[in-house]
Description:
By secondary structure, this protein is an alpha/beta fold. The protein has helices at 5-15, 25-34, 51-64, 93-107, 114-127, 165-168, 172-179, 198-207, 249-262, 271-280, 304-315, 335-339, 362-378, 394-402, 417-424; strands spanning 42-46, 69-72, 84-86, 89-90, 133-137, 154-157, 188-191, 210-213, 219-222, 227-230, 235-239, 288-290, 295-299, 323-327, 348-352, 387-391, 410-414.
Amino acid sequence: MNLRLADWLAHCERLHPVTIDLTLERVARVRERLGLAFEVPVFTVAGTNGKGSTCAMLEAILLQAGYRVGVYTSPHLVHFEERLRLNGEVVEADRLLPHFEAVEAARGEVALTYFEFTTLAILRCMAAEPLDAVVLEVGLGGRLDAVNVIDTDCAILTSIALDHMDYLGADREAIGREKAGILRPGRPAVIADPQPPASVLARAREIGADLWLAGTDFHHEGDRQQWSWTGRGRRRGALGYPALRGANQLVNASGVLAALEALHQRLPVPAQAVRNGLALVQLPGRFQVLPGQPALVLDVAHNPQAAAVLAVNLDQMGFYPRTHALLGMMADKDIDGVLAPLLPLVDHWVLCDLPTARAATAAQLAERLVALQAHARSTGQVLPAATVGQADSPLAALQQTLAVADPADRIVAFGSFFTVGGLLQQGLPRLGGAHVG
């Protein structure tokens, strides 16, 4: 077959009747046929928020230590190839093609979902590379996610909050139980969430994982200038803050250092590599502040916990005369829970449609926002007299916002990878005046 990447992705979308079909049996069968395995250390990262930041910091530090690193994350912001980075570079589409062909040949009668097929292709591409370490981000949950067909050498659980409840369960205990499915007997399990569900700890102890618990097995502390980390028998002091902005990044970084310490015999990392990696790490779309006037903040926050962190981060940015919010999000998310933390901060809202059937329409978002504002005021909450507009795309929403924003204002675009990706796809960053180039 002489197919391009776009052809393969279209093929993957047609193979299975549903988008999400949580089971490992089909993926495991095809993995076995492919003979897919890794001889190098594998870090697997699961959690509700903080996964992407954790993967990026692990990658940056390991690269600074001189290791060859492969990283698989999802979803992508603009181009599918962003899901695989090899030695810090996004993979070229042509390098993926033979691995899509191999998965197609191996699957036979097995109907794989888009995520399962593409995950196997990316994993096979990674396995064919001369790497020293592999970092895998779980797509959804953990126990039944396609990534979990690979046995991890070190599992990392970031924050656990309410999201994907239709698939993972109605509360943190149920969700934690699913995410703890990536843990393996006798292997390090780094729990970076400062208040993990009891189900996570119970699972770790049940299988005899080597539990690294935040606040017990490792700690961090800091002042305005620097921070320090203490683990089992090691202390890393005088550390600069991660280049990734945001209130929770120190929690994520602390978990990263615990994971590196847990595998230090196989992947020793000098202190300077830690400092350089934290200073150089980059991750688009996670409280990403683009230069220009007005300031533009991009954040993929799409659940209540992430929205609450976004609100704190915005509050700590300093004074802006007006804050404009651009929001597009999925209909199956907790829309009220995402809107609520931002209500006291936003003076002007523009709700937008997104190019996917899963998305809430701008009209639906506007209806929820107006109802939420009315309810908040009825309970005595003081809110700005915010105006509400609608647009048919993230770019149209940004253009509408720029038409009324002063240079000293700020704009925050959030709610979905589709929202942020829709803007980045247009060639941002730029602002400067009041046009999108």
